[in-house]
Design a protein that fits this description.
The termini are far apart. 10% of the residues lie in helices and 33% in strands. The chain has two domains: 2-167, no CATH class; 171-279, Cyclophilin. It is built from three helices and 20 strands. The strands form four sheets. Strands 12-19-16-17-14-13-20 form a seven-stranded mixed β-barrel. A six-stranded antiparallel beta sheet has the order 7-6-9-4-1-11, with no helix packed on it.
């Protein structure tokens, strides 16, 4: 069990998401950065899709009520165990009574805490991912007591020294493919979209990232059609919206680009004011 002494800015439990229920309007959800979450689980010898704690910018304060092993991957938010600095991407033994806390954000935006055997919180529609109106809670709250798997001394840690390539946390290039309405853009619009730099607006969260710059929009609205995480929509005002893990399942704005899975991971580690560019060979 883990007691939440302080919840941090926005902390949730996530796995790889819900599948097969999008026809009911239910988002995929799941970890924003699958690469970091997978690293964290792999280092502990867990299945890659076991539920983890997703921590955004300002970390929580957690007291462990049982012995376990933990690993933190993704953003560096200056983690401490009993007020002593610990490193990301390492298997760390935690004893009952130990307190995990976080400090200054140094790199990235979202960190992932895995525990040996995974979190054992609420499972709805075959997923542990928190989402408003689907699970009882949409985020971790102060005073919560989170169930985790029982500790097993016999678990082998063959992956404990795995080399983690986290340089992607600092890149700003997002690989994209054509969206369904891309070819309706003019040549000038295409060139602007694929050669300009864009900055992340204050309107960014698990549902979508809106960009500040404007692309003149001469396209007509489309009939409401399917969208998914990574879809880049062009609004009537010319703003670009990049849909993320908690996005809706349909939309009526032209879909001009589609981010690759790795690019969704990269974007999820960015925050307000940071710069991104779209990288492609489609022109």
């Amino acid at each position: 069990m883990i007691k939440v002494l302080n919840a941090g800015l926005y902390t949730t439990i996530q796995d790889f998401g819900r599948f097969g229920v999008q026809n009911y309007g239910i988002p995929y959800s799941g970890v924003m950065d699958k690469q970091s979450a997978s690293f964290s689980n792999a280092i502990l010898g867990n299945s890659l899709d076991l539920p983890v704690m997703e921590i955004t910018m300002l970390g929580p304060k957690l007291q462990f009520e049982t012995k376990t092993r933990i690993c933190i991957s993704g953003a560096n938010i200056s983690p401490k165990l009993n007020n002593k600095i610990i490193s990301n991407n390492k298997s760390i033994l935690v004893e009952a009574g130990d307190v995990l806390s976080f400090g200054k954000l140094k790199k990235g935006f979202r960190a992932y805490l895995s525990v040996q055997g995974g979190f054992k919180t609420e499972n709805v529609l075959k997923s542990y991912s928190m989402y408003q109106n689907i699970t009882l809670k949409s985020s971790v709250e102060k005073g919560d007591v989170l169930k985790i798997a029982s500790f097993k001394d016999s678990v082998m840690l063959a992956n404990a020294s795995i080399k983690v390539a986290d340089t992607y946390l600092e890149t700003n290039k997002l690989e994209v493919a054509k969206g369904p309405e891309f070819d309706q853009l003019s040549e000038d619009q295409k060139k602007y979209l694929l050669s300009n730099t864009f900055s992340i607006s204050k309107d960014n969260n698990r549902m979508a990232y809106q960009l500040n710059e404007v692309l003149e929009n001469t396209l007509k609205p489309i009939i409401t059609s399917l969208v998914k995480p990574g879809t880049v929509q062009l609004t009537p005002s010319g703003k670009l919206i990049v849909l993320m893990r908690d996005c809706q399942t349909t939309g009526g704005y032209p879909r001009v680009l589609q981010l690759s899975e790795s690019s969704i991971n990269i974007l999820s580690q960015k925050y307000t004011g940071q710069i991104i560019t779209f990288k492609t060979n489609i022109l």
